[in-house]
Design brief:
The protein is an alpha/beta fold. It contains six helices and seven strands, in the order ββαβααβαβββαα. Helix 1 links the parallel strand 2 and strand 3. The protein starts with a strand and ends with a helix.
Length: about 210
């Protein structure tokens, strides 16, 4: 049975299901900040961990995560473990990527309204030629990606050149890194500022899909 970390009101109009990135757990600071920011917008947030990450908590193997396509069934199980109701799926980095790989299937079945990605890993750092966007070119499910402009997994200089589906909206966060965190000395903004901006945009976008 899937164990969730929950934030937000129980009577929220919709739930956001978030999976973690490849190397940081569901209670990592960036994940917690995102969940709390979304909850502050009146959304219910449920976070879960893939089995490889959960195993690390009990002293299990610290092997690298499986390939993204090997995590699809675990993500489906997390969706199935939630009560029925309006749902957005997504996650941080790899977690968001896995969600986008399931999005069309679940959207066509009426299970989800859309997909929210926090720092999409368009390519590995330093390898811009190794794109992870093939399925994003034909995505029919509504998607919102919150991306830092200096994210090494896909910068603002790179991403506009990709042939992404018109169903994908991108919220660019000035000077944000892969955790959406800006340099305050450069922008005068904090990570909390960017999380609040992300959550406000995400809440309006999600409610507009209902």
């Amino acid at each position: 049975m899937t164990d969730f970390l929950r934030n937000g009101p129980e009577d929220a109009p919709l739930t956001v299901l978030l999976a973690h990135g490849a190397g940081a757990a569901m209670d990592a600071p960036a994940m917690t900040a995102a969940a709390e920011a979304l909850a502050a917008q009146g959304l219910a947030v449920a976070r879960f961990e893939f089995a490889y990450m959960a195993a690390r908590r009990t002293g299990g193997s610290r092997k690298p995560p499986p390939r993204a396509d090997k995590l699809l069934d675990e993500y489906r199980a997390a969706v199935d473990a939630l009560p029925p109701g309006p749902l957005i799926i997504g996650g941080k980095s790899m977690g968001g990527r896995v969600a986008t790989m399931l999005a069309d299937e679940l959207h066509a079945a009426g299970r989800i309204l859309g997909v929210l990605c926090l720092g999409y890993p368009f390519h590995p750092p330093g390898k811009p030629e190794t794109l992870r966007t093939a399925h994003m070119e034909t995505l029919s499910c509504p998607a919102l990606i919150a991306q830092g402009t200096r994210d090494p997994f896909g910068t603002r200089d790179e991403v506009p050149g990709y042939p992404l589906s018109p169903t994908i909206e991108i919220l660019w966060l000035d000077d944000g890194d892969h955790d959406l965190k800006p340099r305050k000395r450069v922008t005068g903004l904090t990570a909390a500022d960017h999380m609040a901006t992300m959550a406000s945009r995400a809440a309006g976008w999600a409610k507009g899909l209902m």
